[in-house]
């Protein structure tokens, strides 16, 4: 079949909206009509050539929601008409990681996914006879896409696509980092670095978990109002204080119980670790750093009891947890609608990247 898609032909170039060819689903795969997709900073990072796994030409996008239109041989867990969210972290329920009960990092198809290919080592997308690579196993910047059965979460049909697509990455990543990875308890003090599409979800997750102080840190002063809107109690602009670590440690009587990096900046990751409380504070890295970047701190920071951890997709097991997060949204336990600041057509998708870089959006969503 033919489908409209925004193709990343080269790094650092605008996406081009073209009609691409899409092969139908093979055994164990499903064809999904994407109804809406968010634009995450990770899409921008890959498009900007900063991802060591970046591969071109490809169809980016990993924060979608849509409808199953066709299933391949042997598919049993979804059927045509089902509403689904694509999963860049699949859940096969059979691999060592899935069976461990210790991680959401399913390994069943990670190798081919990182090469921009389906599990059989080929691509379903092509343009003028040349293959186009998949991205993060999702490629939601295409109106139709093919996904492995283990990489779709079936969701309730009354959830609007335009908002629930955000659960495909940002919402689950932020809220999940708090409840699954950090396991924040009532009364804990939390610091969140970077109040964008991810950081605001960390804030609303921390509020939901009953955190006491929730301190937001951002170099964009306009993010102060956004943070407060979702439960932030204090705001620090690093440009207004001499030493951000010292400021936070003093504010929180020795430091944070939990801190979260939602910037991808390795200097900020260090600040996030060092603002943690001596003896127990834990810092969770969510931000994705540019290829070649490394983190550093004095080992003494760890010797004296601070913990450095990371999380992908908020530690969520997609097929199990995503439908529950959709329920949280539909039941009003978490908010999504106010964070969707811009709704765009596919033709306007490059505007979504400009808005993000300018700090003018929280989430732009493309509706097909
Ligand atoms: P975003 O662009 O919406 O937000 C980033 C925020 O960080 C902005 O508000 C910006 O002003 C702020 N910021 C930038 N530099 C800063 C600094 N030096 N100090 C304080 N604040 C600073 O991006 P997003 O969509 O929220 O994504 C945030 C990060 O999370 C990205 O690196 C993205 O790739 C990553 N991410 C990781 C996962 C995961 O599973 N680990 C999932 C989604 C996104
Ligand atoms: N490809 C990069 C790493 C990118 C990365 O860490 N991605 C996160 C999700 S970001 C979503 O917006 C992730 O899921 N990581 C775990 C995994 O298996 O990719 C690189 O450095 O090569
Ligand atoms: Zn993302």
TrEMBL record:
Cofactor: Zn(2+)
InterPro entries recorded: ADH-like_C, ADH-like_N, ADH_3, ADH_Zn_CS, ER, GroES-like_sf, NAD(P)-bd_dom_sf
Gene3D superfamilies per the UniProt record, alphabetical: Medium-chain alcohol dehydrogenases, catalytic domain (3.90.180.10), NAD(P)-binding Rossmann-like Domain (3.40.50.720)
Reactions catalysed: S-(hydroxymethyl)glutathione + NAD(+) = S-formylglutathione + NADH + H(+); a primary alcohol + NAD(+) = an aldehyde + NADH + H(+); S-(hydroxymethyl)glutathione + NADP(+) = S-formylglutathione + NADPH + H(+); a secondary alcohol + NAD(+) = a ketone + NADH + H(+)
Alphabetical list of SMART domains matching this protein: PKS_ER (SM00829)
Heme keyword on record: no
A Pfam short name: ADH_zinc_N
Known EC number: 1.1.1.284
Domain Enoyl reductase (ER): 13-366
UniProt entry keywords in alphabetical sequence: Metal-binding, NAD, Oxidoreductase, Zinc
Family per similarity comment: Belongs to the zinc-containing alcohol dehydrogenase family. Class-III subfamily.
PANTHER family given in the database record: ALCOHOL DEHYDROGENASE, ALCOHOL DEHYDROGENASE CLASS-3
Role description: Has high formaldehyde dehydrogenase activity in the presence of glutathione and catalyzes the oxidation of normal alcohols in a reaction that is not GSH-dependent. In addition, hemithiolacetals other than those formed from GSH, including omega-thiol fatty acids, also are substrates. Also acts as a S-nitroso-glutathione reductase by catalyzing the NADH-dependent reduction of S-nitrosoglutathione.
Annotated protein name in UniProt: S-(hydroxymethyl)glutathione dehydrogenase
């Amino acid at each position: 079949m033919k489908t409209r898609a925004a193709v990343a032909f080269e790094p650092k170039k605008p996406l081009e909206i073209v009609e691409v060819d899409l092969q139908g689903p093979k055994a164990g795969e499903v064809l999904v009509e994407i109804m809406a997709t968010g634009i995450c900073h990770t899409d921008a990072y890959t498009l900007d050539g900063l991802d060591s796994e970046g591969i071109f030409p490809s169809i980016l996008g990993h924060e979608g929601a849509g409808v199953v239109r066709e299933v391949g041989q042997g598919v049993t867990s979804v059927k045509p008409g089902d509403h689904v969210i694509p999963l860049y972290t699949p859940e096969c329920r059979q691999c060592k990681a899935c069976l461990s009960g210790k991680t959401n990092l399913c390994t069943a198809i990670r190798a081919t996914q990182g090469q921009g290919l389906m599990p059989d080592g080929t691509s379903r997308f092509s343009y003028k006879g040349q293959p186009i690579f998949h991205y993060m196993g999702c490629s939601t910047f295409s109106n139709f896409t093919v996904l492995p059965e283990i990489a779709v979460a079936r969701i309730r049909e009354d959830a609007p696509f335009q908002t629930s697509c955000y659960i495909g990455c940002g919402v689950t990543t932020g809220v999940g980092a708090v409840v699954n990875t950090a396991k924040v308890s009532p009364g804990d003090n939390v610091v969140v670095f970077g109040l964008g599409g991810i950081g605001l979800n960390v804030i609303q997750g921390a509020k939901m978990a009953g955190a006491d102080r929730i301190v937001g840190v951002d170099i964009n002063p306009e993010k102060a109002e956004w943070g407060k809107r979702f439960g932030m109690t204090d705001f620090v602009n690093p440009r207004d204080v001499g030493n951000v670590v010292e400021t936070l440690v003093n504010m929180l009587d020795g430091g944070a119980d939990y801190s979260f990096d939602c910037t991808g900046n390795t200097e900020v990751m260090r600040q996030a670790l060092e603002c943690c409380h001596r003896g127990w504070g834990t810092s969770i890295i969510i931000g994705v750093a540019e290829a070649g970047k490394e983190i550093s701190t004095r080992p003494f920071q760890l010797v004296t009891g601070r913990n450095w951890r990371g999380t992908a997709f908020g530690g969520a097991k997609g097929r199990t947890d995503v439908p529950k997060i959709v329920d949280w949204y539909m039941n009003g336990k978490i908010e999504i609608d106010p964070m969707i600041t811009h709704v765009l057509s596919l033709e306007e998708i490059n505007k979504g990247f400009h808005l993000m870089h300018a700090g003018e959006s929280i989430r732009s969503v493309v509706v097909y």
